[in-house]
Design goal:
It is built from 13 helices and 18 strands. It has 429 residues and is an alpha/beta fold. Among the domains are: 119 residues, 3-Layer(aba) Sandwich (Rossmann fold), CATH 3.40.50; 125 residues, Transcription Regulator spoIIAA (2-Layer Sandwich), CATH 3.30.750; 54 residues, Beta Barrel (OB fold (Dihydrolipoamide Acetyltransferase, E2P)). Helix 9 runs parallel beside helix 11 and helix 12 packs parallel to helix 13. Bound molecules: iron/sulfur cluster.
Length: 429
């Protein structure tokens, strides 16, 4: 049977799709490439924003229209967080919650024999363990994502994820070591450690993120270890010091901010102030000279006044982010913020998001210009045009170089000669 996956959302979702894909391939399924008819279509959904839900709905309706004979499967965070809504989506023949993906093959075979719609979304439990999963690689990627943590217990006021992902669960360190080694043996030079609340790694098994980083960096054959999104408050000077000892750790830190205004951070139930955030940024820059700090920041959180927004905008400018993902606040049913007074009008949210995006684009260009003249190692990822190759430095600067054949997957020293629009141009050094 031919199968095709559509993945929405974060690196954890992409990892889980890869794990599902490898399981199906090991059970005799084959990939249905773009344009090829599939027997099974799997949508691995996200529910971070209302738009994410909409994308999953639209994808299923489109797939059902285009390939009416195929078995359609909806899984991921949307059905897990909103089982009632997902159940109504009859374009999905099979609806599986996050904890049921390991049974995907059995449920597909069951549906094919009974033609009875399957909806199986089990609620997360307190004693639930880390879902055993391992990947051999990441199809079509030069860097491999490695999910090492699941769940979150922070309940930020705007966030639905703890309801979709349950309590913190960590991948056993021995499994992590074995998986990184396997990826290195298959030629991956870089792994990206990722999770739902990555810095919470190990809190359920008496370890910490530093243990995971050291284990990944110790793997023979791995040249670079990159970290996925980080919640700031666990990046203490001790943690930063321990990480600094790891030469393979990429000097790029995606430090989720959400707002640069203390009053808004308080209403968001975030556990740091803007001053504490700036201190962490300074500690990282002192420990990792030339590192990049990237972030997620939101506009239009309930109750956000124009003054509070301008305070946040000013703070974001002062940090000097290498890149920032800007979001307009999206109401999520069931969250504290959804019940809050002072919901901001969409037009105001859009205006503030635009202003924030423009300011962050300027920061990005300043960051790229600051790379000029430096010599950095670039992991070449793809051909960006005839004889033109693109890759990323350790601090996640996208760099293009002119070069010969077959450079993909190679790490090359590159002199960065100038910044262009959204990337840098370099010369192999
Ligand atoms: S830390 Fe906050 S924003 Fe991040 S997943 Fe947990 S609840 Fe959501």
């Amino acid at each position: 049977m031919k199968v095709r996956f559509l993945t929405l959302g974060c690196k954890v979702n992409q990892y889980e799709t890869e794990a599902m894909r490898e399981t199906l391939m090991s059970r005799g399924f084959t990939p249905a490439h773009e344009g090829e008819r599939a027997d099974v279509l799997v949508v691995n959904s996200c529910t971070v924003t209302a738009q994410s839900d909409q994308k999953a709905r639209q994808a299923l309706r489109r797939l059902r229209r285009q390939e009416p004979e195929a078995v359609t499967v909806l899984t991921g965070c949307w059905p897990q967080a909103f089982p009632g809504e997902a159940e109504k989506l009859t374009e999905a023949d099979i609806v599986l919650g996050n904890g049921k993906r390991g049974e995907l093959v059995e449920r597909i075979l069951e549906y094919l024999s009974t033609k009875q719609r399957i909806v199986d979304v089990a609620q997360h439990t307190r004693d639930e363990g880390f879902e055993p999963m391992a990947v051999k690689g990441l199809e079509g990627h030069t860097r491999a994502f490695l999910k090492i943590e699941d769940g979150c217990e922070r309940y930020c006021a705007y966030c639905i994820i703890p309801y979709a992902r349950g309590r913190v669960r960590s991948k056993p360190i021995e499994d992590l070591r074995a998986e990184v080694l396997g990826l290195a043996q298959r030629g991956y030079k870089e792994v990206v450690l990722t999770g739902i609340n990555l810095p919470a790694y190990g809190q359920d098994i008496g370890l910490s993120l530093c243990d995971a980083v050291e284990a990944a960096c110790a793997a023979e054959g791995i040249s670079r270890v990159r970290l996925g999104s980080l919640e700031p408050e666990r990046l203490t000077p001790e943690v930063i010091g321990r990480m600094r000892a790891q030469e393979k750790l990429c000097p790029q830190f995606h430090l989720s901010l959400q707002s640069g205004c203390d009053a808004t951070l308080k209403r968001m139930h975030r556990h740091y102030t803007s001053a504490e955030y700036m201190k962490i940024v300074e500690d990282l820059r002192a420990a990792f000279p030339g590192c990049s700090v990237t972030t997620d920041v939101m506009a239009g959180f309930p109750g956000e006044t124009e003054e509070e927004f301008l305070e946040s905008l000013d703070f974001c400018r002062r940090v000097g982010f290498a890149k920032a993902h800007v979001f307009a606040y999206s109401r999520r049913p069931g969250t504290a913020a959804d019940r809050a007074e002072g919901q901001v009008a969409n037009a105001v949210k859009e205006r503030r998001s635009r202003a924030l995006s423009e300011a962050m684009e300027q920061s990005r260009q300043e960051f790229l210009r600051a790379q000029t003249g430096t010599v950095q190692e670039v992991l070449i990822e793809r051909e960006a045009g005839p004889g033109l190759w693109e890759g990323f430095t350790g601090n996640y600067t996208p760099v293009r170089i002119e070069g010969g054949e077959g450079l993909s997957g190679r790490i090359l020293p590159v002199k960065i000669v100038r910044a262009a629009d959204g990337y840098c141009l370099g010369e192999a050094f």
